[in-house]
Each structure stands twice: as C-alpha cells, then as structure tokens.
Amino acid sequence: MKTIMIVDDESDVLEKVKAFLEEDDFQVVTVNNNRTALEMLADNKENNFGLLLIDTELPDHKKTALFSLKPASKIQSDISNEENFLQKPFTRDQLLAFVKRQM
After folding, report:
1. How many structural domains is the chain composed of?
2. What integer pLDDT is reported at residue 62 of this predicted model?
3. Could you give the angle at the alpha carbon of 38 between the alpha carbons of 8 and 41, nearest 5°?
4. Domain span holding position 63
5. For 32-52, how does the pLDDT look when each residue is reduced to its tens digit (9 = 90+)?
6. What is the pLDDT of residue 57?
C-alpha cells in the first residue's frame, strides 16, 4: 500500500487525520509546510506516495478543506471539482470515505 502524505500547518489536524487513517491501516506521513512536502516528493524516487492531502481553501469560498492529489498521476487534478476536496471540519467516517474514493 502506498503512503498518504498530509500537509497542514495545524498540528492538531495533522494528528487527528493521521490517527484516523492509521486506525484503518493506512501508512501516513505528516508535514507542516509546503516546502518540506515538495522536498520529500522530489526525494521520493520510488513514488511511494499514493495520495497527498493538502490544506487549502475551497474554490470561491472562504472555507478550508483538504485537497486530494495523486502525485504519480499524469492527469492534472481539477481544482474546480469539489469532489477533490473534503471540507473541514469532517468526521472520521467522512475522511475515510473520501480517502478511499481518491485512492
């Protein structure tokens, strides 16, 4: 199973998301800034990351969400497609369903 990277500047969100995903047997790496995430992706020659969950704002809203991105995909992610976003706050079940759809 490929690893999920979570990028968020809020440590409590990182801990919560990591705990939820690890309870469901996902491998998780947490990062608190974009620069570190980009460095890790550049160093990741074996494409171990199957999914990135990145803290952002929903398009045309002021609400925060996790944006999903498949780093190894040759298809560009559609940032206007709300199915690629999970609005905060979310429950454990909502997170797991979202991740499973995106994987």
Report:
1. 1
2. 79
3. 110
4. 3-102
5. 999 999 999 888 876 789 999
6. 81
